[in-house]
Amino acid sequence: MSMEIQNVILRGSFNPAVSSIQTRKARLITHLATPNLSVIGSPTWVSMKCDCSFHSDTLPTKRNLQQCRNSAQKAECKGISDIEEDKPKAKIRRKNLAVFVSGGGSNFRSIHEATLNGSVHGDIVVLVTNKHDCGGAEYAHGKGIPVIVFPKRKDTEEVFSAEDLVIALRSVKVDFILLAGYLKLIPAALIQAYPKAILNIHPSLLPAFGGKGYYGMKVHKAVIASGARYSGPTIHYVDEQYDTGRILAQRVVPVLAKDTAEELAARVLHEEHKLYVEVSAALCEERITWREDGVPLIQSKENPNDYC
């Protein structure tokens, strides 16, 4: 009785306890010549369809083998051969995040909620603020997230340096730092300790309306006064200056003719919440790549060949 050879599994070794028919199939496949067949790496299995057949009671002859070779070659030329690799995806470790705030922390809250619902593959393990009684700090206390005050207030004798902050962040194994409305300049010691690992969000399309003194409502008033027709949030890497690091992502919103600063701020903030969650997700999923000229790009989750 003839049997069609389909979806043959190639493995490094064969179990001697298998049936005689399975053994004959294994011998056949190990002798099959498959020219022009290239497999990158070490696939766990390869499937190939072949038109040839042989009698189950006899081992294949040289003629049978040649027929199988020819059939396999024809199938490959016709595009019928099917080669697949089963590569298990490397499990990505959940990342530990530190968030820095100076105010209400609405972006902080959005990111935290995203870590809880699974949108962001990470956990916020510490909040850093320069205002111990700000809304962001109160939210963190309510959620059981540790809070560090940095820099310390001038009316306290306690000394807490940038080096101390680095030690504190490393003690909870922080992978990335997200600035979400933090108004203090990040010290060089922290930037050096976390290269290409600190992000900031700014409420304008940088490099316009950025730098020292441009924050909060001041940005939106300046945008409207300039006559700009578009604005929106920018997420960028942090360097030792205000708002000059490499731009990672932006989102554009219109500036309407009769906008007030408050109306424009609300429109931009709505996009900030979505954009920062998307970027945080890409960061934790290790989808940030760097172009040769030093420009960071986000790899698409759906299509790894697309970038934004």
UniProtKB/TrEMBL annotation:
Pathway: Purine metabolism; IMP biosynthesis via de novo pathway; N(2)-formyl-N(1)-(5-phospho-D-ribosyl)glycinamide from N(1)-(5-phospho-D-ribosyl)glycinamide (10-formyl THF route): step 1/1. InterPro entries: Formyl_transf_N (IPR002376), Formyl_transf_N_sf (IPR036477), GART (IPR004607), GART_AS (IPR001555). CDD domains: FMT_core_GART (cd08645). The keyword Chloroplast applies. Its EC number is 2.1.2.2. PROSITE patterns: GART (PS00373). One of its GO terms (cellular component) is chloroplast. Keywords: Chloroplast, Plastid, Purine biosynthesis, Transferase, Transit peptide. It holds the Pfam family Formyl_trans_N. GO terms for biological process: 'de novo' IMP biosynthetic process. Residues 95-279 form the Formyl transferase N-terminal domain. It comes from the Eukaryota. It is found in: Plastid, Chloroplast. Belongs to the GART family. This is Phosphoribosylglycinamide formyltransferase, chloroplastic. It comes from Sesamum radiatum.
